[in-house]
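User: I'll paste a sequence; please echo it back and then give the predicted structure.

Assistant: Echoing your sequence first, then the prediction.
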Amino acid sequence: MIRIGVVEDDPLGVDVVLSHLDRLQRETGERFKVRAFSDGAEILRSYQPHWDLLLLDIQMQDVDGMETARRIREVDSEVIIIFITSSPQYAVSGYEVGALSYLLKPVAYAAFAREMERSLTHLRSKIRRDMLFTTVDGVRRRVDLADVLFLESLKHRVAVQMQEARHLVASSMRAMEAELAEDNFFRIHSAYLVNLHHVIEVDGNECRVRGGALLQISRARKRDFLSALAGSIGTRGPRT
């Protein structure tokens, strides 16, 4: 499910974009979770960095689209931004806030579909970097790596421990270690592969991860683990 925010103070403009999104879902099979915001001030009041894409009008009263984008970028460097405007000269400043592109009003469906496909391609590339794909009970699932606390070897399966869930997947710890080698995961024990970003304490031969779980650290791996943990500290983003 792709999360899309539509920020537009013209009700007619909102209706056009929502209609285009509905049509795009029917034609492509994509699934969107869409919320419309009446202006920049409304989305900024409660903004959380969980949106995938924002369709953002530039010319709005109170807080215009460019200022909205600047303030969003202070807390969210990843969300895709597409500006919507009737005056292309306003859109040339989009590079300052990392906008992917812009659409001219009135927004024709053909142009809208092209820009959305470009955005979705960009998003899918990002998802491949930030997601773990697993097969659980025959169903292909996409797991956000940021939410994975650790992985545990259980005979012929691996348990993926999330903050609020636990998935059993048919894989080996060796295969998972290779897949996550560049994603701040470290093999601290033959049974455990831990997300370094969630380690909150090391005490002797145990480490504690967010949520309270204590994991055993192999003596042979401890020095390399501590080194990897120290190196990961500067790459940690803000967490709640």
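The first helix runs from residue 11 to 28. The chain is about 35% helix and 30% strand.
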